[in-house]
Structure formats: C-alpha cells, structure tokens
Amino acid sequence: MNKVTDASVADIASLFDSRGHMAYYEYPLTHLQHALQCAQLAEHYGASPDLVLACLLHDVGHLLVPQEMFNHHFNGHEHSCVPFLRSMVSDAVIGPIRLHVDAWRYLCAVDPVYRMSLSAQSAQRLQQQGGPFSLQQAAQFIEQPYARESVLLRRWDDLATVPGQTTPSLHHYLRMLESCIA
After folding, report:
1. Domain housing 165
2. Is 87 inside any structural domain?
3. Which of 77, 116, 147, 156 could join 61 in a cystine, given CB atoms 3.0 to 4.6 angstroms apart?
4. CATH number assigned to the domain comprising residue 171
C-alpha cells in the first residue's frame, strides 16, 4: 500500500489484516467484524454485488489513518478512502460509501423514530458530522445518484454491531471484489 491511489485486492486484505482488529466505536467488536456483518446484511437482503462491497468497504477510510493519529471521530472517512479505492471499484461501490454519513444525517431528518433510537455516543458523533439535515437538505440529498443505496448501507451499518455474530470470511468478499474488477 505504498501508493494511496493504486489499491489492489491484496492491499484491502492487508489493510484489514493489519488494522481491522481495532475496536469499532463503543461496541464490543472490531472494524473487520463490523465490515463483515454489514456486507452479510446486504447479501442477506439481496443487494447487488456493488452494494455488498460498498458495505464491506464503507469504513476503510478509518483504517487508512495512521495508527498514531487514529481517532474514531475522524471526520471525512467517507471521502478519504475514495482515492484509495478509485482504481479498483466503480462509482456504484464508491457512491454509497461517499454518501453514507450524509445518509445518516438524512435519516435523522426524515425519520424521528430513527433519530430517537441513536445512542448518546452516536448522537454526539452525528453532531460532529454536521447534525441532521434540514428537510430541504434531505430532499436534495435523496435525489443524488447512489443516495438511496447509501440509505440502505446506513441502515445495515447501524445493525452491524452484534458481538460474536458468525459471518462469511473476508476471503468470501475479496473473491467477490476480484470478480467485480476482473
């Protein structure tokens, strides 16, 4: 992974091998476990391979931050991974990743039950990410390409926090990634 703009499947595997063990926010699971659970949910609900891969890779931006600078409150992880992934995956993978934080802001604007279900830590992170959209911002957001897919990713992202959940292996999803870029 010497060049951020030239990722490969091996680089993704290496990144998860070296950094995926880090704790995922306040939940008793790792970033890798969270990524696998999110991808598994997408697969379970019949999402396209591109959306399954977006679910797997949506938090890669967190893992790209050097260890000494790692902070779960790192803003911009949804954008910082784009140069890393661009050479390998299509806009159908990158689009939902790029929009998944804004999808959170969207859901909090249009779904009061969703907003009230946030933990105190999640509500604090939401404020750090800009807070809920206004209704006008929400209406503009959902009209963007890949916005609807990003809302699905966000919902699966929220559910992918089950300690000890059995999932397919990273290798299962890396084979999917290889077939998408072949």
Report:
1. 9-181
2. yes
3. 77
4. 1.10.3210.10
Beta bridge partners of 103: none
64-106 pLDDT, tens digit each = 876 656 555 556 777 677 888 988 999 999 999 999 999 999 9
On whether residue 2 sits in a domain, the answer given is no
DSSP letter for each residue of 110-134 = H-HHHHHT--HHHHHHHHHTT-SPP
Domain count for the chain, please give it: 1
| Structure tokens given for 171 | 């290798």
Number of other residues whose CB lies within 10 A of the CB of residue 67? 9
In a domain, 30, yes or no: yes
> Concatenated DSSP letters for 128-175?
HTT-SPPHHHHHHHHTSTTHHHHHHHHHHHHH---TT-----HHHHHH
